[in-house]
Amino acid sequence: MASDEDYMAFLNKANKDPSEGTAKTQGKGKIELKAVDQGVKVPAALKKATSDAFYVSDADEPFVPVYLKYDGKKLPDEATFAKLVNHPSPDDADVEIMDIGEWDTQGQYKEIVDATRDATKGSDVRVYRIGREGSRVEYWVVGVEGGKLIGAKALAIES
């Protein structure tokens, strides 16, 4: 037998907006982070790897290619990464750098990681976790090659 509070929590959850927690396109107040610079050609291997790959969370979202101009030779720090993706407040951005094994504990995103390694000619690949509004986060799997930050990103809803 459930308590009154448990039953009320169940009813409140059942009455929530069904579109809550799904990714929305850029609209009023929504800031879309930049994943690809204008005028660049995303490597074919990366396009193929992201064409039907989804990040599994509360809102299974597709991976999209990342291809940004970057002057550094090593992966950027958190603040520099936030600036590269045009975060509205890069100095206050909730960015965390993760190892691949820490992010993909079951190896289910191996194709994305391998495509990123191929596109960056075997460079070090890391995951940048950017906290967004509420339970939304974005995972950016990237490496550096020839003045470019290359990889894939996906939105996740973590409840």
UniProtKB/TrEMBL annotation:
PANTHER family noted in UniProt: PTHR42093, PTHR42093:SF1
The protein's name: Uncharacterized protein
InterPro entries: NuiA-like
Upper taxonomic lineage: Eukaryota, Fungi, Dikarya, Ascomycota, Pezizomycotina
Pfam families recorded: NuiA_2 (PF23151)
Region named Disordered: 1-28
Native source species: Hyaloscypha variabilis (strain UAMH 11265 / GT02V1 / F) (Meliniomyces variabilis)
